């Protein structure tokens, strides 16, 4: 008898779950139906800033697979179909408009919800999110409407990854860019000293950063369009506003249906992405709670990498192959022009919250052999457990070639290595790629030297 | 009472040993004397191709520290001083010219000896090594003597790292480049399929590769200058010849003095770099035998990274702080124009020799998100233990951004991770840096999918 899997939400987690379940079960065994409220599935929200910037030419480039491509793999996608309720007892999803989709298995992959603090005027036209492809299209259109020779000003609220990528994108399009932060520094998941490096670099790129200022109001012009913000420090005029205030879990559907919500505010699941009280229901991606590999505690980290892997775990289990999600370190990278930023594991705030006795070490080195053309400064910061020297977290800020070095440290943390072990490890060297001792090893040595001494 | 440390050989291993011993012992406690046969210490042989190419402008850029700088740290360097014998019983090094240097501790760091097969004509003028800075200067001078508009041809014997880097350098200087290999493919420490990728790329760069041809003779002109080579297949004219035939250990001083030589042909040392029968003598760097982290067997791998670390271990022990060298994976990277190459751990030949039952998986991916400008192809090959899935070795060949990914795999191998663990790991993602699943993870998944299935 054919069972039916219904997936709510057709982006990274949902489509990974669907695709993985399909790999393991034929259409005769398992019917797969995806409900997606927008008109597109399997798209790269992370690519929106580069599309706005013009570095990626076409919206369709950001779409990995279309509904037609999924249909060819016997996965039915209903776009424009918003799930409004889940009847857990009946095993049915109710869509807006009245359609009902019965399920044997359900994957909730409703994604993230961009933070929108209760600021008057935030809903005015001219204020843009960066969540869906439509947001990208709207920002592009708004930029296109600006006079070529008149004022071209963009204001970004928030200094996380998306905020900084959008700041670069607006500058690429010839806008004068202002970044307004409630926090003292951009990149809240970097430590203060590393965030300061980023902040200084933004200034050197010609961006204006107003930090440590809560926005009290979005100002609107006579037509009701956003034209500036008022903070508790000053008033800043602009021609468009982009929100990069972070992302929480989108759990309204799950919560209203009675699925358990965890202490992080995301859907509570076990390590197979399964809802504990409803073993036929799974949640994955930005809407789901997960756990941190270093602390062992529950966590909510909205990243596409995790969404893909969690979806795949859910799809495996549904397909009949046991699978467990291995946890997160929150490894993330970005760049703003030539400045590259990476982080993984615990920053000092997180280490402190988790109750670790920790130490920190920061080193400065070069991305290539010092004498090699294109050698740029790189700073590497390690957070290690005091005494044991176990790596807890790492941060890098530097020139081209810096960011992806975080993967080495993420792998070392993943494996439970100490700084001492990392210091002895055999990383590659050639003048175009690193100094004889890679900066990552230099950082590990700085810790181990003192641990030994 | 002041003891004396004598170091024979003033490059990576020797100067690391000297510097580390000095960090731990004052000049009143330990006198440090370095004997170096050339006129320069602490230089980057790895930088010579880039100096020849003109990418690095100045010879002095390749010198990390001068004898005067070492003198300021109370390390006495005698340049132009060739050690000719060690009297182990008397505890004395005899230098050419008659000077004797008594020691309490001795570090033998005589480095590597470039392979020079017994080919007639190999000693002719116009045939150049790439070992010392003087070699680089000689090649530069030879290139400068070529007519600007006449024939400008360079021939490289051997296709290892140095050979390919020199091929690029000669091409950079406007020479028509031919590479002649005794092996069927360049990069002997890559598997055949990965070496083929490199070979194809060299051809696409306009280099001529004659593979699988033993050189029988270096041809000389009427002035006795090298003007071509004759192989068992053909004869190739050229204006200069560069040798990139690999590197063995330079052990003549050690062997003649009675220090034990290991089965690899390099000086036998324990894991503290100490000669077993002469605990007051240490050897480090390209002249010393080491051990492979994966096989646990003795190995000889001539790389500057190991030389630095082994020297540091010897210096620590001499300085009174216990230290052990943690072994090698033979991690190495290079690039030829846009083509980047990396390898670590065991290739299939090595896995077979070591007696592993292994499997291999190769994947193709892109260095960045597929839609992102500058995304280039990357191939990742993993060698894993059959059954356990333990990572034994890895190879990458691809466009810019490929090479340093080998460090992630080197770290995973270092930590004893399986492909399955690697597949779950939390590596970074952003469109300018990688697809959602980093190619390294895609490769690990390819293994684990089959291991699971």
From TrEMBL, chains A, B:
This is Flavoprotein oxidoreductase. Residues 337-435 form the Pyridine nucleotide-disulphide oxidoreductase dimerisation domain. The lineage of its organism: Bacteria, Bacillati, Actinomycetota, Actinomycetes, Geodermatophilales. Its cofactor is FAD. SUPFAM superfamilies: FAD/NAD(P)-binding domain (SSF51905), FAD/NAD-linked reductases, dimerisation (C-terminal) domain (SSF55424). Residues 4-302 form the FAD/NAD(P)-binding domain. The keyword Flavoprotein applies. Belongs to the class-III pyridine nucleotide-disulfide oxidoreductase family. One of its GO terms (molecular function) is oxidoreductase activity. It comes from Modestobacter caceresii. PANTHER family: NAD(P)H SULFUR OXIDOREDUCTASE (COA-DEPENDENT) (PTHR43429:SF1), PYRIDINE NUCLEOTIDE-DISULFIDE OXIDOREDUCTASE DOMAIN-CONTAINING (PTHR43429). InterPro entries: FAD-bd_OxRdtase, FAD/NAD-bd_sf, FAD/NAD-binding_dom, FAD/NAD-linked_Rdtase_dimer_sf, Pyr_nucl-diS_OxRdtase_dimer. Keywords: FAD, Flavoprotein, Oxidoreductase, Redox-active center.
